[in-house]
Amino acid sequence: MINFNGTLTENPQFTAYNRGMLYGDAVFETIRYTSGKLTFWEDHYFRLMASMRILRMEIPMHFKLENLEEELLKVIEAEGLKTKSASVRLTVTRNEGGKYLPEDNGVGFYAFANELKNPFFLLNEESYEVELYKDHYVNADLISTLKTSNKIIHVTGSIYAKENGYANCLLLNTNKAVVEALNGNLFLVKGSVIKTPPLEDGCLRGIMRKQLIEMLKKLENYTIEETSISPFELQKADELFVTNAIMGIQPITKYRKKTYANKVAKELLGKLNAQARLAK
Q1: Per DSSP, which regions of 166-227 are E strands?
Q2: What is the pLDDT of residues 140-172, one digit of tens each?
Q3: Does domain 129-278 bear CATH number 3.20.10.10?
């Protein structure tokens, strides 16, 4: 079931002139739903609004926090997931018309939900080997920090990872700094210092990234640094882990000849679950 501009339908009517399809002219949010609420919904909402403004989309009057939340809950209930956990994707596309230059900066939306097995973030301790993906590079700019529908580097990187037996790949920017993983933000642990690439390097403005940075700033036993990460630092790290809004924290177990622990990831995941229960 799809919520297509406020109407529930199994057959949404997308045309050949959809700008999301033609030009990647769309932004999206993927939100975890559990315990009857959308986890970190306010953060997702305000990131979506900021992204729309940056892309010069007109924000409709009815795109209020409560209204969009109601539309997402509508599709969750229609899928029979109200008492379960789910992954919900909300996509906003610019209206049809024009070529590169739009004729209309108004927008429409569609949303769907898929069931998740677990109501909480769980630590996956299975083998999770990664490698650098160097066929294409992320631009170190503002556009790269947005969650747009143009993710071709992540698509080709995912194919490369599968073909070569890796669980994930790490992306480099045009300055050859490590930016993020294919499906989330990267954190590096060395002693009591935890590093994550800065937004200026072109990494995604991730919701879990934001939550962890805020959490770590309050913990006395860790120091969080938003700083560029060189590929040479990866094998010197004690831990590496990836974060996103659906899985929470995914420890990396191996990169090239180096294997990693997951002590810090496990500790932070427990705190993240507690924070998620309290968040709006």
Answers
A1: 168-173, 178-181, 185-190, 193-196, 223-226
A2: 999 999 999 999 999 999 999 999 999 999 999
A3: yes
